[in-house]
Amino acid sequence: MRWSYLINVVGILIFFVGLAMIFPIGVGIIYADKSVGPLLKSMNITLGAGLLLCLFSRGEKAEHITPREGMAAVAVGWTAAGLFGALPFYLTGGEFRTFVDAFFESISGFTTTGSSVLSDIEAMPRGILFWRSLIQWLGGMGIIVLSLAILPFLGVGGMQLYKAEVPSPVPDKLRPRIRETAVVLWKVYAGISAAQVVLLMIGGMDLYDSLCHTFTTMPTGGFSTRNISVASYNSVYLDMVIVIFMIIAGINFSLHYQILKGDTLAFRKDAECRFFLGTVLLLTLAVSFNIYGTVYQTIGDSLRFGLFQIVSIITTTGFATADYEKWPDMSRMILLLCMFIGGSAGSTGGGMKCLRIMLAFKYCYKELFSMIHPRAVTHIKIGKKTVPEDVIRSVLGFLSLYMILYAFCAVLLAWLGVDLVTSFGAVAGTLGNIGPGFGTVGPAGNFAHIPEAAKWLLIWCMLLGRLEIYTVIILLVPEFWRK
């Protein structure tokens, strides 16, 4: 492990986080709120720390980055970004009473989880709320991938960082050089974001709210500038615009690139995309039927709210237009299952990912088929491509580890004093990077009352979910740090 290289990467990431603070400072100046002072102090501290780390580690050239160094750089870099990103919250004070609360909010932002300790969001300065949304947008496609796009110092070794960061079992390399791939992804991401801003403004949102909600839709983050989230606007048009862009964000971004390059049938040809859209349709109909006549008296309202919540949860965005805790048990159970399914591989969504769920189903069918035809030679395919055995093992290992960690963290949270329903809901919401869960952390609640030790556990869960478990959990293996 080349420690000087690791320090250099972390220093550059911290410096980038400091530069990004200029945007909420501008917002604070425009609205003349009390966020300007805390943001300026935070920016100076963050830029200074980043420069010191870079100067301390200068001279190390990384012509080749090992997988260990890539994973360590991503995990440590993400944690460092969360620590320095918490400074504006902590220095602002208010509901951020301790640094743990500020760090929780920051990690929730960078990991695009959307869990919050705020009970009165609208009372916060606009500059702080803008920073809260911006860090989700940066975290959505990944500050590591952004660094690959703008920092050529990583050279050929950048693929190791990309593999550690991109939330996909099989990362898509769209261009020969990894830096070109990162640039393409960010162009698509920024272009779609710009389109959403325009459409939200057409629906009546002002520029500030349009930017903030776009910054938290595209990364499937879910932070809102309103206390009751998107429900505050009570607009069918805005609901549908956000639904469309949540679905876009939940689809593999390489498919969007193919669409832009002229392949209009890219969605239809992709097996995972069909599975994702089919699942959304099926579960929306099931929930809408269940809440029709029990919660909503018209089929229109049932479809509107059922569709929004299914899409919001399965893409792991976490926006709310209704308090689903008051829905029938069947609907709540479906929403809980959606928290585990997640979006497509290569999307900004969290959860297990549809591709892994598909492969698990196909593997189970293959085993059943082998019991009936023990001499048959069968292969698991996605579309027309045979999936290698090592990918299957990796997927099954990931799913097993995901459920083990989910059970372990839920039990540990209950041991720390959180009630049973909230424990299972909070871990599902943070490990899947959804945001709201069930119980006291549902769409009408928040995480402020969670014990401090439990917040540290949930911070760890958010990092685990965002970095696909292995990148974080492997740091706990002693062999990882040995030569």
List the helices and strands and how they pair.
Blueprint: H1 3-20, H2 22-31, H3 36-56, H4 67-85, H5 87-92, H6 99-110, H7 126-141, H8 143-150, H9 158-165, H10 178-202, H11 207-217, H12 236-249, H13 253-260, H14 266-269, H15 271-291, H16 299-314, H17 329-341, H18 354-372, E1 381-382, E2 385-386, H19 389-415, H20 420-431, H21 452-466, H22 470-473
Antiparallel strand pairs: 1-2
Helix pairs in contact: 1-3, 1-4, 2-3, 2-7, 4-6, 4-9, 6-7, 6-21, 7-8, 7-11, 8-10, 10-11, 10-12, 10-13, 12-16, 15-16, 16-17, 18-19, 19-20, 20-21
How would you describe this structure to a colleague?
The chain is mainly alpha-helical. Helices cover about 65% and strands about 0% of the residues. It is built from 22 helices and two strands. The protein has helices at about 5-20, 20-30, 35-55, 65-85, 85-90, 100-110, 125-140, 145-150, 160-165, 180-200, 205-215, 235-250, 255-260, 265-270, 270-290, 300-315, 330-340, 355-370, 390-415, 420-430, 450-465, 470-475; strands at about 380, 385. The chain has a two-stranded antiparallel sheet with strand order 1-2. Strand 1 (about 380) and strand 2 (about 385) form a beta hairpin. Helix 10 (about 180-200) crosses helix 13 (about 255-260), helix 12 runs parallel beside helix 16 and helix 16 runs parallel beside helix 17 (about 330-340). The longest helix has 27 residues, at about 390-415. The radius of gyration is 22 Å and the shape is globular. The relative contact order is 0.10.
